[in-house]
Amino acid sequence: MINTHDILETINMIDNENLDVRTITMGISLLECIDENIDRACDKVYDKICRYAKDLVKTGEDISKEYGIPIIHKRIAVTPVAMLAAACPSSDPVKFAHALERAAQTVGVNFIGGYSALVQKGFAQGDYSLIESIPRALSETEHVCSSVNVGSTKAGINMDAVAKMGRIIKQTAELTSDRECIGAAKLVVFCNAPEDNPFMAGAFHGVGEPDCEINVGVSGPGVVRSVLSKCGDCDITEVANLIKKTAFKITRTGQLVAQEASRRLCVPFGIVDLSLAPTPAVGDSVAHILEEMGLEQCGAHGTTAALALLNDAVKKGGVMASSHVGGLSGAFIPVTEDAGMIAAAKSGCLTLTKLEAMTSVCSVGLDMINVPGDTTPEVLSAIIADEAAIGMVNSKTTAVRLIPAIGKRAGEWLEFGGLLGGGPVMELNTASPAKFISRGGRIPAPLQSLKN
Amino acid sequence: MRAFITVIGKDTVGILAKVSSACAEYGVNIQEVTQSVLQDMFAMIMLVDIDKSSVPFDKLSDSLSALGDEMGLKIHIMHEDIFNSMHRI
Question: Which of A36, A63, A277, A389 has the largest CB neighbor count within 10 A?
Fold first, then answer.
């Protein structure tokens, strides 16, 4: 029998340290639903999603009960809808968003992602109209999430798309200003977007993926923090070691859940995303891990180094625990979704410039940050350009999910509730990048040698 | 399928008896039991076989946890693989 200490450790992780599996995400290809008649295409989309995902929520709940591990969300990711919109150029792509919403409600999932376009090198048929329709799609639906990939290490950065996305983010926030601008919280702009990411709002089902697959995202910042809180004055080598060991255990639960979900649903297992995903709940914060390492508050000098260590150790521990790793894999730093980040942003210790530096060493990017409502689209675009440049040059995924708080100024508050949390509106540098953004064109792909 | 029942809380008279009779009532076969009392905290772990259980797993889990609430204890039942996968390579 497994020893008592190990059993009690697992129970304690789940009961007191918020260990959970964040999401089981079913990726579904919609390529066979392409049709020149948009209503017919929408019917096919709805039918296919409902057919494939009819048992997803029930299976997730069964596994959760049997193994005693909470599975917080069940989600669906689909083929970027711009590819379907390409076949019916004169129709309104928002119809697809409504079809996705209906399907999400029928099968009972928490989110459905894939109202997306990949435009890192340029716009194809369907991309333009889909991107233009994002503000309406996100304001008229509740569960649909959208993402646009504007750059990659291989292609460079599409500055026309960057300019466009600044305006789209602003419009999305404006259309949902009566609901805390929540539309913008469901929209991500990527560089180097992964095709098998189970996390929202950026999940979509890439064209290289199989017809259907199961991807799982783990969580567990609370467990890592608790381990570090007991390590006393040990040196940084030991800190990294402890994180690795803990990440291994966390990821093993994700691997088990993924394999079991895949077996029960008769759908191939895709990947486990080795992420430390926080929630606004106390004791489930990535910022608190950094503080446990010895920083007075997240955002202090030393935060970037501490985060780099954490991110690397999580991957090293997680890789051995799972047979297939993918998605975003690393520590997330979404400001409004993390109690420690919220506190640090509120006190002024965590600034946008520090967050930008942090994104160069960790998973994802400038995530869930509330910015003043009068921020110009050009400034939003320029933030996207900066963040995409970090991703492009460092061959990593970066993303921007900013929420312009319409009618609010720095220091005021936006509250989304649930996993999305809430947080203060953060101050931005408002010097104008308008001319740079209005030039358009493409930033050429970076050299992959002569690294310095 | 085998599962671990864990009982954690303040030590009182009759914990083992009550949990074992619940197991017997549902046709759950107890294979191994280990228990420890540290100061006043009681921790008991049972490895059980639930293949012949008369109720579905979720009912079993709910009734054990209700029994725990009655006695002021936390009772979990979890598939053994969650522990195997986390603590064995």
Answer: A277
